[in-house]
Each structure stands twice: as C-alpha cells, then as structure tokens.
Write a structure and sequence with these properties.
Layout: E1 5-16, E2 19-30, E3 34-38, H1 45-52, E4 60-65, E5 68-69, H2 75-81, E6 83-85, H3 98-107, H4 114-119, H5 122-141, H6 157-169, E7 175-179, H7 187-204, E8 207-211, H8 215-221, E9 224-229, E10 232-238, H9 239-243, H10 246-252
Parallel strand pairs: 3-8, 3-9, 6-7, 7-8
Antiparallel strand pairs: 1-2, 1-4, 4-5, 9-10
Bound molecules: adenosine-5'-diphosphate (ADP) and magnesium ion.
Residues 45-46, 88 line the site of magnesium ion (MG).
C-alpha cells in the first residue's frame, strides 16, 4: 500500500432534516489504492460520494484532499482539484454521441474562453483538436470506438456505464468515485468491468473508491473495504477481515447481497 495520504474524512456527518444519513465517519484513503465502500441499501454510501463531490453540504466534520480542506467547497472547485465520480443512475447527455459526451467532458480541463470559442481563435481551435484527440483515445481504451457516433442512449446498458467511466476519466482525476458501476450489467459485462477497473488503476495511476453491491466484484478487486450501516462506519479492513467480521455479517443478514 502506498503511504501517501490522499483523502482524509474526519467525523463527517450529513443530515437530511431529522435523518442522519452519515454519522461521524472517519476514513483515510492512500494514493494509488483501490478501496471498496459497501453496506446495505440506504446505508449512506451515495450520500458520502455526494458530500465528497460537493453535491451536498456536510452538517459537520472535515474532508481533506491532498492537503486541502474541501468541506465547504463548491462541486466545481472540487472537480478542479481532481475528484470525479460516476452516478448510480447513469447521467449522460442521451441525445449526444458517445464522442461528444467525452469531448464536452474534456473541455472542463481547458482554458479557452467562451468568446474565444465563438470566434474560433487559434487557441480555441487547438484545444478543440486536443479534446477530440483525447476523446478518441479514451473511446479506444474503453473499447467503445465503434460507437463513437452513436447516440449514447442507444448504447447497451453496460456500454453506457463504461462511457460514464470514460467521461469521468478524461478530466484526468486523481480520485475516481464509482457508484455501483456494475448495476444492471450481466455477468459477462461485470467480469469485463472488473478487468477494466483494475487496468484503469495501473494505467492512469488513479485512486479509486468503489461502491458496489456485487460482493464478488468488491472482494476480487479491492485491497481494503469500508462498511457503512445506517450511516455509521461499522468496519474497515482487508477482504479477509471484512469477510469474517461479525458486525458486517449481522448487517448483511437478510439483506439482498
Ligand atoms: N437528498 C436527500 N434528501 C433526503 N434524504 C436523503 C437524500 N439523499 C439520501 N437520503 C436518505 O439518506 C439515506 C442514505 O441514502 P443513500 O446515501 O442513497 O444510501 P445508499 O447509497 O447506501 O443506498 C437514505 O435513508 C436516503 O433515503
Ligand atoms: Mg446508493
């Protein structure tokens, strides 16, 4: 395990009215790790991602990423620091092609102005070309080149999920948050995804937190696992430690996993 701390969450809580969706969670993730975040439905997993990406404001506690306190920062600021995510419910521009979905995401990283874009200044054209190149390269990596000009809504469910991951990756994140990427995939697609996630980590050097219901996938892929139950972190440890943890077994008894 790499020793550099990338993300430190301290006593983080998120409440919705009277409901404590996240309750005093402490979590540290190190550079280059691939960690799993599991827990029964409603445990607060997605809410934790929402807090990490600035989509919801923590009620208390701290999020420190690469030495910077992100607790009260906007989603835009956080994404510029290098945290991106995919969504449990796919959020692509449905009527745009796979290529255009990626080109738009590339522009997040670029500096030309709106006016420059309209006037087609040299700088803007050069960046357009660069975005196009990056988008094609990412389609290639994800095995989606043949669908470049297909509207994203027409892709298979598995390919839409891959396109979402591709879209997150073109922003060159340091931390990638995957929210149930295998949901709705068939076993063959899930197996392919497993290999893909593994290679993304090594090829892009990106740190990954994976929320996943498919226990096999999590146990096969992740070195460390965090377990949430009713907003509380009830366990963290290696696959073996989590597998034999009494509290985890209790939390999952009767749950659909
Ligand atoms: N925006 C919201 N407003 C009110 N309650 C919410 C909101 N988002 C999540 N919750 C509640 O917080 C709890 C945790 O939800 P969630 O983070 O989606 O769980 P998980 O992803 O682990 O299934 C649930 O009880 C859910 O109903
Ligand atoms: Mg969720």
């Amino acid at each position: 395990m790499a020793a550099n701390e990338l993300l430190r969450i301290s006593t983080l809580s998120v409440s919705f009215g009277g409901l404590k969706a996240i309750s005093n969670v402490d979590m540290t993730v190190y550079e280059g790790e691939l960690v799993g975040l599991i827990g029964p439905n409603g445990a607060g997993k997605t809410t934790l991602f929402n807090a990490l990406t600035g989509l919801c404001r923590p009620t208390s506690g701290e999020i420190v990423f690469s030495g910077k306190n992100l607790s009260k920062k906007s989603a835009h600021y956080i994404s510029r620091q290098g945290i991106t995510r995919t969504f449990q419910n796919i959020r692509l521009f449905k009527s745009l092609s796979a290529l255009d979905n990626l080109r738009i995401a590339c522009h997040q990283n670029m500096s030309y102005t709106f006016l420059g874009g309209i006037l087609k200044t040299k700088n803007a054209s050069r960046q357009e070309e660069e975005a196009e190149k990056q988008a094609w390269a990412m389609l290639e990596i994800m095995g989606l080149s043949q669908y470049a000009h297909e509207r994203s809504v027409n892709l298979s469910y598995g390919n839409q999920r891959k396109l979402e991951i591709a879209r997150a990756l073109v922003t060159k994140p340091r931390l990638l948050l995957l929210d149930e990427p295998a949901a709705g995939m068939n076993p063959a697609e899930t197996q392919e995804l497993l290999h893909l996630i593994r290679s993304l980590r090594s090829d892009f050097g990106v740190t990954i937190i994976l929320i996943e219901h498919d226990m096999n996938l999590v146990m096969n892929l992740c070195e460390r696992i965090f377990v949430l139950d009713y907003g509380v972190l009830i366990a963290e440890g290696s696959v073996e430690e989590i597998r034999s943890n009494e509290q985890v077994i209790q939390a999952y008894l009767g749950a659909d996993v």
